[in-house]
Amino acid sequence: MRSKYEDLMLFFVLTLFVYFRDRTSGQLSLGRRINSRIRREALERIVGEGDRNCIWELRMNTNTFANLCEFLQVQEGLKEDGHVSLPEQVATFLIILAHHKKNRNLQVRFCRS
């Protein structure tokens, strides 16, 4: 018969196993999935809801923004770094230039640390 201590240790080991299995398998935790969704929605509000918001935030229409992203990727070699998508990188840069925003303001907007 197992003691409470053995049960507690077994539970602890199983918890660690599940935690590290999820981290190494590439699955996103709930918090990271929510932040990813918030980032996509923030970018979608700027670029995906028509030219009005895009011009207001980025000072260019959605077609020009898409062309700029493609140009920077193909001609200049800008790449996604695994954490930040290419359109988010470009949008962040343009918002900083267009509105004299600080990086911290955009970290809150795009749920970045």
Tell me about this structure.
Keywords: Signal. The chain has 113 residues and is mostly helical. The chain has a domain at 32-109. The protein contains six helices and no strands. The longest helix has 21 residues, at 4-24.
Span between N and C termini?
48 Å
Task: Give the mean pLDDT.
Answer: 76
Report the strand count. 0
What low-confidence regions span 5 or more consecutive residues with pLDDT below 50?
Answer: none
Largest sheet: none
Helix-strand blueprint:
Elements: H1 4-24, H2 30-48, H3 51-58, H4 62-74, H5 86-99, H6 103-109
Helix pairs in contact: 2-3, 4-5
Task: Give a quick set of tags describing it.
mainly alpha, DUF8040 domain-containing protein, about 110 residues, signal, DUF8040
Structure summary:
This protein has about 110 residues and is mainly α. Helix content is about 75%, strand content about 0%. About 10% of the residues are buried.
